[in-house]
Amino acid sequence: MPRRARTCLSIRIRKSSSRKIQGMTGKQGTFHAMGAMDYGTQVVGGVTPGKGGTTHLGLPIFNTVGEAMEATGANATAIYVPPFAAAKSIDEAVEAEIPLAVCITEGIPEMDMVQVKTKLVRQGKTRLIGPNCPGIIRAGQCKIGIMPADIHTDGIIGIVSKSGTLTYEAVQQTSEVGLGQTYCIGIGGDAFSGTNFIDALELFLQDPKTRGILMIGEIGGGAEEAASEYLKVHNPQGPNHKPVAGFIAGVTAPPGRRMGHAGAIISGGKGTAAAKIAAMKDAGIHVTNSPAEMGKTILRAIINK
Amino acid sequence: MFIRTAAATVARRQLSIHEYMSFNLLNQYGVKTPEGHMATSPEQAFDIAKNLPTPDCVVKAQVLAGGRGLNGGVKIVYSPEDAKALAEQMIGSDLITKQTGEQGRPCEKVFVVERRYPRREYYFAITMERGATKFGPVLVGSASGGMNIEEVAATNPEAIIKEHVDIEAGLSMEQCKRLASKMGFPAYSQDEAADYFMKMYKLFKEKDCSLLEINPLAEDSTGEVLAMDAKINFDENAAYRQKDIFELRDWKQEDEREVIAAQSDLNYIGLDGNIGCLVNGAGLAMSTMDIISLHGGSPANFLDVGGGATADQVKEAFRLITSDSKVEAILVNIFGGIMRCDVIAQGIIAAAKELDLKIPIVVRLQGTRVDDAKALIGQSGLKILSCDSLDEAAKMSVKMAEIVNLTKNQNFQVDFSLPI
């Protein structure tokens, strides 16, 4: 199996996924470790260099990812480490060959992420989600990230998004219209990240529980266009077709201004919302122009299938 | 291909520095530029011009915007007296170009540079490629230097040559020589050009650049290769480890409101509308602007308070938004993940008390600690128009802004005060 496909499977977190947290003893790490445990995620320990041997929240702390994996059998890690050290933490996770690493950190220097990503594509054991993302959640089972758990319901829609809070909107809307979610994957807003739209779509197309897909993009870059091309090939109309709905944030953003996300720059006519919407529609994606209609749009697409 | 990611405008999130500083950096890394010095007064300009090796020189307004040359910001002069006179005109006035907006940008310094005669002009840049398979630093070169590279990219893409750098292996001399050759450097200057490419890549990597653009990179009449012009932008995420570089930032070249925002660690971009926005998360913030627009309104700003904002930052955000006199209503849209709604509520309450807010505030909160937040706001006795639905909140903010706008024009005072 090609490297990328192998690592895609490790995105499939479930109740039994056991996870540890790099940076758990920090303020953010602690808050979100508790949130994850409340949700029923099997958090098995934490990694903070220098604090190995201590405990935190009743769980063992280790000095390195490798040690933690050996002692606890963890198969996923959530990284809540500040920008100056985050790239190294990801590297450590990759070296330890942990199947899944989720990096929440915003503000990692681009040069560092280029180096991390270069290592990532040259191996096939670790899948990275993020950085600068809210994480991933399998509704009803397992949460690795900072998303508010209680808006999620176990259902049938796979959601992939660059944005954090805009994803929560989509989650709430899909819960409200009664569809619920399977996996919600925040791929993050950075220019260089571990998982892109296509990786997430591949998972959704293969997952039998996912019967509809919601794709949320934004201005900048060409990822949504590439994802649309991918869907044309891998999600053709027919009996196996899964309806896809989408929204692109930033229609009103003025060109040349960077709106927060490293990737969200329009330049030279490329990366505009209009171009992405056109590409998505061309691939049969039901695109809505309102962020308040994402749930209704995927519902309609499923009903009308 | 995003050559001009930030070269064309002063993007808040990627540091831009003045041309004379870029020249200094290049010189530090061993790349030759025409000799030049910065002047803050006409007398200084005179002295510099007198001591330059050439009788003619070029006076360049140090303003962070493209299009200077087309708007009188770059001029050749033939004597030190002319340099002085021109500097007198430029220093202290605003330069207006297509990219600066109507107010233009203040010119406080000029760069007085010796005049060199380019024999051949090339385009060279290093930037970050953002593809899925090809990503990371890329060297971009073209024999079509000295002109609008985007036009070249559009009409003659084969004229643009790229060399992707494997960040683990580094840039090789072989790649540089290949690029120099394909760009059309004559055999006798290929080694010098290649050497420059290596040096500029070192600069790019060591200083966390996001863009390094030399247009033109010229071979002059003496056969020397020089960088005649330079635009260098830096990755804001690297500010913590590039303190020297980031100290070079000229805050006067940026929108005043954005300067204030930066001081409170807020991500703010001023726009032209009348509905102020306070949102958490860049995607949601952009969507909030989008949905306001959909309902016929006009957003006054983009503002992302981020995930870890304190009540103080929220208060500062309100202060910033309301300092814009065009703002006639405010929409707060918070979906708490890391962001806690009760913190937002504390900030709103503090803002209302301290800032004596008169304009209507529509608040829409969801997510972490939303019930605590609603309780706080309820207990405070504030008359905030609250709404659970994003669509309704957007519509309401548009309606409120219309009312304020109408009553303003009628000279009719409607009191939207928030009694405590």
Give an overview in words:
The complex is a heterodimer of chains A (305) and B (420). By secondary structure, chain A is an alpha/beta fold. Chain A contains ten helices and 14 strands. Chain A folds into two domains: 7-129, 3-Layer(aba) Sandwich (Rossmann fold); 151-304, Succinyl-CoA synthetase domains (Rossmann fold, 3-Layer(aba) Sandwich), CATH 3.40.50. Chain A has helices at residues 3-9, 27-39, 65-72, 83-95, 110-121, 165-176, 197-206, 223-234, 273-282, 294-303; strands at 18-22, 42-47, 55-56, 59-62, 76-79, 100-103, 127-129, 135-138, 142-145, 154-161, 181-186, 212-218, 244-249, 286-287. Chain A has a seven-stranded mixed beta sheet, with helices on both faces. A seven-stranded mixed beta sheet of chain A has the order 9-8-11-10-12-13-14, with helices on both faces. In chain A, a hairpin with a 3-residue loop joins β8 (135-138) and β9. The radius of gyration of chain A is 19 Å and the shape is globular. In chain B, α11 links the parallel β17 and β18 (361-367). Chain B contains 13 helices and 19 strands. The relative contact order of chain B is 0.10. With 420 residues, chain B is an alpha+beta fold. In chain B, 36% of the residues lie in helices and 24% in strands. The chains are: A alpha/beta (305), B alpha+beta (420). The interface between A and B is large, with 69 and 71 residues. Chain A: It is found in: Mitochondrion.
